[in-house]
Amino acid sequence: MTQPDFKGAGTKDDPWVLKTPPLTSEYTLYKDESHNPPILVCTVGTTVLHYDLRCIEDLHKMLKEHGDWIELGSADEQKEPKDGTVEAWGRSPSNPIGGWYGLKKGLRGRFGMYIPPLLEGLGLAELEHNARNNRMRAK
Fold first, then answer.
1. In 26, 83, 113, 134, which residue has its Cα 20 to 30 A from 1's Cα atom?
2. Ramachandran sector of residue 56 (left: φ over 0; alpha: ψ -120 to 50; beta: rest)
């Protein structure tokens, strides 16, 4: 199963409309390249998160190098993510930017919840859509 009804141009006026991996919640993402560094703006209800735009390319590269399914492991910033997950990689000092892809202090987590569906929608990855413990891999 892929992102249902993936649509949008990824701009502020026409954001990507996505669903979380379990397909239970809808949210939007768009690119804002006027920031330094350029960011993805993620809106979930009234909450607005920011992620470094590089995360799309960097996560896809990591998935290709990993070569197999990897758990998403989504967690809030205040919680320690499970080792070996997309979430852990998204905040690891050994990733290409040397730390958090999430940029808003206090809201830097949930990388493993909101970025994988975008890679799926863009055709860069496969994503599971179970109620919990979803995984992804590069296409």
1. 83
2. alpha
